[in-house]
Structures are given as structure tokens and as C-alpha cells.
Design a protein that fits this description.
alpha/beta, five-stranded parallel sheet, three-stranded parallel sheet, globular
Length: 281
Amino acid sequence: MPVPLDFHVHPSTSEYLEGSLGSYLPDLEHHFRMEMRVRTVEEMAADFEGLRGVLLAWDAETFSGRPAVTNDFVVSVCRRYPDRFIPFGSVDPLKGEAAIAEARRAVRELSVKGFKFHPAAQGFRPSDPRHFPLFEEIAGLHVPCLFHAGTTGLGAGTPGGSGIALAPVQPIQFDTLAAAFPTLVIVCAHPAWPWQLEMNAVAAHKANLYIDLSGWAPKYFPPELTRELGRGLQDKALFGTDYPFILPERWLREFETFDLPPDVKEKILWRNAERLLDLVD
């Protein structure tokens, strides 16, 4: 029996929470109304017993000044728990040629299955042609890109948003990228509030663009999103939590109450992700 595949899992270890996030962490705790507990790799794996998850690296070093969660670290965790975690890497687009070289190494030597980007936290616009050589390389490596879309808890409620702008995470940014690279598979993470209708339109228009449902507990999904999950987005939507900020058991419990046909729920919980990651036998 297939098990749910969480498409958006951050490490809950010190490498991410204390290292890469650092001063952003109090903003996120306030945004999510919870206190974050640093876990060991073993504790994180225990949280995914009976589940699978895409484990994400994070490199926003140039813009944030914070150390990256390295691709090597993420891959090492996935190799210890191959039945639970699938590795996604990260590269910092502001590093230019070094980012391209690292993307190539991460796929060819480390076997990562995709890349995670947070344009607001990394300080770049996906539609900017200066970064197109990086996405051309990733398209040629035949792995997907996962992008944060919509507002973010990073810097939320602070003066100037702690320097983080929201324009880079508007869905129309990814529409431009999807049009420029039709062979690049793009996943836009999170209900893209306040641009949900724009996100729906982009996902419907671009066959190479998907969404994941992480970052918001299902009971808070906007009606514009829940209405479309049983319609045009049923083949485009992927289960995701944004762990450790939302735990899998809560997400799954709330999603179970949705009035969706069983086959649609299966698509969202694992079938769409398996097809996108080429995990189907």
C-alpha cells in the first residue's frame, strides 16, 4: 500500500533551525504560533515513520549571511533513511557560476532528485534572465525545481520585513520562468496567499508547473484553492507540510475531512508526486 509523500520537509535539526535560519527563527515561531524544538536526525526520522518526505537543503548565504544547509548533509540523512526521505538540494543563485557547478555536482555525484529555492530569502527574482543559465542547467539535468510562493513568515511583522521583499514570490514570477523553460518542471510551494487566483491560473496554464500544499494547515486553505482541488488542480497538487512548522499528523488529519473523492485524495497524497519524481514502477 503506498504511503503519503510529503513534498516539503525542512530539517528540524540545528543545521537549519539554528544555522541557516538564525535570527529569522523568532519571526517564524511568532508567525506559526509555536515554539520550535531542535531535533536530532533520529527524532526527525521518527516523525516520518510510515511516511515519505522530500528533504530540502537551503542555501541563502549571499543574501542572508547565514550558513547553508549543505547538499551533502541532506543526502547523508537520506542515505541513512532511504525509505523515509528523498533528497532535494539547494544552490544560491547569487553565486553565479559556482551555483551552476554545484547544481551539476549535486545531481551527478550526490543524486539529489530536485532543488529548492526561496526567492524572497535568497534575494533574487526567478523571472530575471541573469539567472536563466542556472535554470537551463537544471532543466538539462532533468530534475524539478521547488519554489516558495506567496507571503513568508521570514521577517513577518518586523520593520521592513527584515529586508525581505515579497515581489520575488508572486506566482507571475514562475509563469515567466515556466514559459522560458518548458522542459523545466516547476513546483510552487504553499497556498500562494494573497495571490491564490493568480497561482491557480498559472498552474492551469502551464503544463510544466505544479503546486504543493505546504505551509498552511488545511483548515486554513482559502476557498479559491479548496474548490479547485477537486477540479482542475487535482492532477497538479501535491501533499506537503513545511515540516517542522506543520507536523504531518495534523496536516493529514485536517485534509481527511475534505469532501473529495478517494481517487483525488490519492492523487494529492502520493500519486502526483510519484509521477513527477518518476517513482512509479
